[in-house]
């Protein structure tokens, strides 16, 4: 049986199962297992199932075992734990409270503080959805209480939450690095400048929005003293220290990404107990939530690893590379096609699902064109970031809708999101046009 045909049918089957809301780990592993069995059963021409059981089980179990025993994968539970512990210890929200105190008198200052808070939260947790969920509970209700435009109060947090995908540490960067065998430390550093550009772009959107419509953000009439500002800035030092450990330690060659994660987890626990904001009960809850979230990610990664091995067996990736090469597509046209594919998938699927589904085909293709995989990783993550707020299924938008309830209809949130999407597309074009924005820091390690 033709392997390419089996591979293409498998891709269609996975997309169909995901559309039916089958968990992605089971969809990937199930389709890959059945596809592998079919290939080996028909290898001699006639159907011989007795010859397919052993190689199929070998492919499934050996790839799962190799992935779970990967050293790089160990940083996922560490960074997930860091996010939960830092939240329980009030470390992740300190950036928002400091920014709010300093910017409250600036037009749209609370919305800007929300975006900055999302950026600070992202610099510790590495999860966009967790960022949107947590900051949404804190920021959106407060802005609504202050009389902010409902679109601004919700869209700013939904968009700001996407920064968790790009600003290191990022779970998506870790998964990308594992499956493409690229340096995760370099990927983290590559996301810093594009992440900061995205954050600055969101602040500009808020500034222009409020400048054109002052009623969207009522002016603050209270009094903020210099002492309050100084106290708020000092209270945010743990979050700044953790970010410096992660980025500075990796950039300076002091830590690997995994070591930086371990050091930060220890530091977060010590700081939390020292400031008496973390209890043993809260620590236990953080670790329990870490186990649940990590198990989910590991199952998806294991299913993806099996699927990648199956795709390699079918030979569909080389066939697609050959077809694209023969079509003589220019590099810009190829990148445009890749962007369209990711944006379309982002409207319906979650980021991890899109990544593990597309990387087996995209990586050989971009390598053929000589693209840098570190830079391409930033492009992919930015595309996935955009997908988190793209209608009709922007996951971050649905998260914020769940937080604010019936007070703000979801169509109102999406109408506000369009302004942030425009700046996201502009940043994407900049990243694709000027790879140096992504490669500058990794090149100077």
Provide structural commentary.
This protein has 445 residues and is mainly alpha-helical. The chain has a domain at 72-297 and 374-443. The protein is 77% helix and 0% strand. The protein is built from 22 helices and no strands. The longest helix has 35 residues, at 280-314. It is globular. It starts with a helix and ends with a helix.
Characteristics:
445 residues; mainly alpha; 0% strand; globular; cell inner membrane; cell membrane; TRAP transporter large permease protein; transmembrane; transmembrane transporter activity
Describe how the helices and strands are arranged.
Layout: H1 3-19, H2 24-41, H3 53-68, H4 75-88, H5 94-103, H6 109-125, H7 128-145, H8 150-161, H9 171-180, H10 184-190, H11 192-212, H12 226-235, H13 237-251, H14 257-274, H15 280-314, H16 316-327, H17 331-346, H18 351-368, H19 373-387, H20 395-404, H21 410-433, H22 436-443
Helix pairs in contact: 1-2, 1-15, 2-3, 2-15, 3-15, 4-14, 4-15, 5-6, 5-12, 6-7, 6-8, 6-11, 6-13, 7-8, 7-20, 8-20, 8-21, 9-18, 9-19, 10-22, 11-21, 13-14, 15-18, 16-18, 17-19, 18-19, 19-21, 20-21
């Amino acid at each position: 049986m033709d392997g390419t045909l089996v591979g293409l049918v498998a891709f269609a089957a996975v997309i169909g199962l995901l559309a039916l809301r089958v968990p992605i780990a089971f969809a990937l592993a199930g389709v890959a297992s059945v596809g592998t069995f079919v290939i080996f059963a028909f290898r001699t021409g006639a159907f011989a199932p007795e010859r397919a059981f052993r190689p199929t089980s070998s492919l499934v179990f050996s790839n799962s075992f190799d992935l779970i025993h990967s050293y790089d994968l160990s940083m996922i539970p560490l960074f997930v734990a860091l996010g939960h512990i830092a939240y329980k210890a009030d470390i992740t929200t300190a950036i928002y409270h400091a920014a709010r105190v300093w910017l409250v008198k600036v037009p749209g200052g609370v919305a800007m503080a929300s975006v900055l808070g999302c950026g600070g939260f992202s610099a510790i947790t590495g999860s966009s959805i967790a960022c949107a969920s947590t900051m949404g509970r804190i920021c959106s209700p407060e802005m609504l209480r202050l009389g902010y435009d409902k679109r601004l109060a919700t869209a700013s947090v939904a968009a700001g939450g996407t920064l968790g995908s790009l600003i290191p540490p990022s779970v998506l960067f870790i998964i990308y690095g594992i499956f493409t065998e690229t340096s995760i430390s370099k990927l983290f550093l590559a996301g810093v400048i594009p992440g900061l550009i995205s954050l600055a772009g969101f602040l500009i959107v808020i500034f222009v929005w409020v400048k054109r419509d002052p009623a969207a953000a009522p002016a603050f009439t209270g009094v903020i003293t210099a002492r309050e500002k100084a106290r708020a800035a000092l209270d945010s030092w743990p979050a700044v220290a953790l970010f410096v450990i992660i980025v500075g330690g990796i950039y300076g060659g002091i830590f690997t990404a995994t070591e930086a994660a371990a050091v930060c987890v220890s530091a977060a626990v010590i700081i939390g107990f020292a400031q008496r904001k973390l209890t043993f009960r809260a620590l236990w809850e953080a670790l329990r939530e870490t186990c649940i979230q990590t198990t989910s990610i590991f199952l998806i990664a294991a299913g993806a690893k099996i699927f990648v091995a199956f795709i390699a067996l079918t030979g569909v990736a080389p066939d697609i590379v050959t077809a694209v090469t023969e079509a003589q597509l220019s590099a810009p046209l190829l990148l445009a096609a890749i962007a369209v594919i990711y944006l379309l998938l982002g409207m319906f699927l979650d980021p991890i699902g899109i990544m593990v589904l597309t990387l087996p085909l995209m990586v050989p293709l971009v390598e053929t064109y000589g693209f840098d995989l570190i830079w391409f990783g930033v492009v992919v993550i930015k595309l996935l970031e955009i997908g988190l707020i793209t209608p009709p299924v922007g996951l971050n938008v649905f998260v914020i809708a769940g937080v604010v309830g019936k007070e703000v209809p979801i169509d109102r949130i999406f109408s506000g999101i369009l302004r942030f999407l425009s700046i996201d597309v502009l940043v994407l074009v900049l990243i694709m046009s000027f790879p140096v924005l992504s490669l500058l820091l990794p090149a100077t390690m």
